[in-house]
Amino acid sequence: MTASPIGRETDRVDGPLKVTGGARYAADHRPEGLVHGHLVQATVGRGTVLGMDVSRAETAPGVLAVFTPFRPLPLNPPSPQQSGENYSALQDTAVRFRGQVIGLVVADTPERARDAASLVTADYAVTPSRTSLADGSPGVPQGVVQKLAPGVTSIDAVLASSPVTVTTSVSQHAQHHIAMEPHATTAVWVDDQLTVYSGAQAPQRAAATIAARLGVDPAKVRVICRYTGGGFGQRSPVWNEALLCAAAARALRRPVRVVLSREQVFTAIGHRGAVRQTIRLGADTDGRLLALRHDSDGELPAAGGWQMMPGRDTSAVSYRTPNIRIDQRLVTLDTPPTWSMRAPAEAPGTFALETAMDELAVLTGVDPVELRLRNYATEDPVEGRRFSSKHLDECYRVGAERFGWDRRQARPRSRTDGDWLIGLGTASAIYPAWRQSASARVRFRDDGRVAVSSATSDLGTGALTVLAVVGADELGVPVGTVEAELGDSALPPGGVGAYGSSVTTSTVPAVRAACRAAVEALVRAAVDEPRSPFAGFDPSTVRYRQGRVEARGRSVDFHTLLRTTGVPQVEAVATTEPDTASPYRFHCFGAHFCEVRVHRLTGEPRVDRFTSVFDVGRVVNAKATRSQLAGSIIWGVGHALMEADPIEPDGRFAAATMADYLVPVHADTPAIDVHWLDRPDPHISEFGAKGLGEIGLVSAAAAIGNAVFNATGIRVHDLPITMEKLL
Ligand code: MOS
Q: Which domains does the chain have, with CATH numbers?
């Protein structure tokens, strides 16, 4: 009897390959005749390229070609459905932001390409850049979400007449994804068939985008990304650099590789947009909300990008309140493109909301956990739809107990440890649970293995292992028997995009359905194949159990059966759909509890420990779950204390290296106690997984900020919380 691996600790199936260097990433593919491209970027913030001098680059050693707006590679403009930038590189002379691609130099080695790229010069007509949210605020309204109690005509009137009011304005600068693997593309044409090795969060969508932009038959484009070193949203679109790489390979009739430098990862492709938000709360004296208003101005680059609208998935779904208004605006700036970045709207949005809730707790004297329970929502406050499952109250209870919340003192500066001020803080997390239509293929093979395939991606999350674990569980075979496969647009259509914390939620039902269909196909083969020991049996008398086919006292394992019958493999593909008619709202929840210390003399903030409890539905792999959630919390430390990249008036990022743009290292990482409830969601799928890639980051920064206030009595509204703000 094989015990179910669901919810247990499973090592990732690709771990040995990754640590031994056997996993080949986009830039590890070395086709015969490979040459190397390097980008040339605009050095002004906005304007027009008047002319470029490529003569020194063209004659530099090893150079094969220099492409510019004056000698372009043909690319189609993006269609409105395609994400990312709203223009194609080299097709015009406009400069939309500093760092925009204005050239590609191709040479025989990466070093020679980079060297020659540095020899290209350009003349510009420069126009002033809009780079600060203050330049354009208030931005263009994106529609108001509002629900008012009967008889109420204005939320501001309710706010003005509320016994207790809080107004909290917060801001954060641009942030960067900086995946460990720099963006890289290796493009290989064989006749009219294009293979692109490039990290992609949605390989099939990437292949379709590349085909459309290059003007080729989608059936002739294949994107392969078996291993991808992080995505976080930045690998959802296909950026110009990958398109130019494929176009250059076509023009030169040779495989071309383009690898972005670490600086180019900051400056040439999307970042998380800057945003300013104001929360206004009206409450009665015991902290019950009467009104909630959430206003935001988010960065939207003229070059295109992801729309930063933080109220929709946070304030609009978090607390019970009779009156609510969400007003999201976008400010057009001449900055590099933005793109969604892990918990893209939820991380900034909950920093605003959960900071404001902490301020309300301080003003009313209600304990922050009790305040949240008093305003607990079992349905969303705008549409009144019930949550499919919500056990956030249990998260509070379990978290408070594990953390020792009862030791918190409400008055700031009450606890010290030598020269350190100690503070405790809490915040609530919410993130949409999202299920996509998905397909999977399951194949019994005569070598004794079962292949489970889906055309999604594993960005380092453990999705590959999820396929293996779920396949093994459904078929009753050891995890090691299953060969999981993803990261290839040529796998059966219907692979889901690895974004929105949705791969497990969406793909698991498809894998389970494909397993059942494959078992049926195996049984059918067992009775149909003339050489089978079950030939001619009534299929209803034949059963599959734990890798074996059984009937009338005979029991044969599937690979022996396949070998005996001479059938090399039996397979089935299944597609599963979300219930789009469901009346429920699907969300994941969490409660963070955090302890910080702030040095009395230097103001240095340190995060000592986190206890976080999550309601994420059924969990497939405990080990990967802990790793995802803890990784997100560490990201929250960066959000709160370190990550910010202001854009100078000339369009230049203040930081474009990992020496200047700070993220937490081991020494910044607190002790993290991650816990999750065993609460499968009964409505999202039969399996009940809700997703957990992003929820850990949501409101982690607010928990830290709230703890910093408890330690110091200082409320920092403009992130990051750096030492000079605590003096
Ligand atoms: Mo993630 S920001 O949903 O790719």
A: 26-128+180-230+235-268 (3.90.1170.50), 343-350+363-434+582-726 (3.30.365.10), 436-576 (3.30.365.10)
